[in-house]
Amino acid sequence: MLRKILAVLLVLSYTSCFTSAFLRGLKHKYALQKRLNSGVSRKTEGTKLYFKGRPLSPVTRVNRHDSIILDCEVGGTPTPTIHWLKNGERLSQGEYRDFHDDEAAYEDRVGRKGKPLLRLSSTKSKLFIDCLIPETEGTYSCIAETPYARIERSSKVVIDNEKYNSIESCLVKKSLEGESARIYLWTSARLEFEDATVQLYCRAEGKPQPKITWFDRNGKVITDEDEGYKVADNGDLIIKQISWMEHMGLWKCRAENANGVDTKETFLYPTARDEDDEFPL
């Protein structure tokens, strides 16, 4: 058990997914949840949501007809989702995106016999803005959410109209070739108790619509015939009854269409419960 605990600490330190303060808070949260009888309290007490990585610049200055990428990363429990706004209006990333994808939840919310789960995750998102024109200017906001919390960061995109690239080359390339497959939302790290069902995000945009393929930690393609796995319509991977021996490691998501390929990795770490149900850190 001690060896596994040390492995958890080393892995979390290596991935920089979870802050030490958050892990200490999670330990106290877990102990407290054991004493709570209310189902509502069991779901809401001690939830956490926070931004990670480099923050968005308050102002992003670009040349006319340029293309830019805005990055956003969050950590928390339960597993957070991310979407984007422009001037307060929600953006649709990709022609085929359905906003209901954000609410598509397949993983377990409680463990066996009603025991609480960790549901500890890091989520990343990219907003691709192509062929900028004056109408593209505005305030873009990254919105991170769980069922119990919401936080946001914003950047004002300002275009320098004195400097510009050829709009024709940008638009012609998009119209003739379509758009390359690009992953705009994915799970970068996930920590959960063994035997739970987890959902790993992987959502992509592009034209034609990208095909999503998942690879297990050994590089094997996951198919519909593989028992214990399911690739959802939105591209997410659902893994049932995770275990440290079978599932710990890096999983890869690939989005591909006729115009390009994009790949992202997810680190999954299943951990065992202590026999007394105390959080093992």
UniProtKB/TrEMBL annotation:
Every Ig-like domain range: 55-158, 194-269
Annotated SMART domains: IG, IGc2
InterPro entries given in the database record: CEA_cell_adhesion, Ig-like_dom, Ig-like_dom_sf, Ig-like_fold, Ig_sub, Ig_sub2
Tagged with keyword Glycoprotein: yes
Gene3D superfamilies hit by this protein: Immunoglobulins
Transmembrane regions: none
Protein name per UniProt: Ig-like domain-containing protein
Coiled-coil spans in chain: none
Origin: domain of life: Eukaryota
Alphabetic keyword roster: Glycoprotein, Immunoglobulin domain, Signal
One Pfam family it belongs to: Ig_3
SUPFAM superfamilies linked to this entry: Immunoglobulin
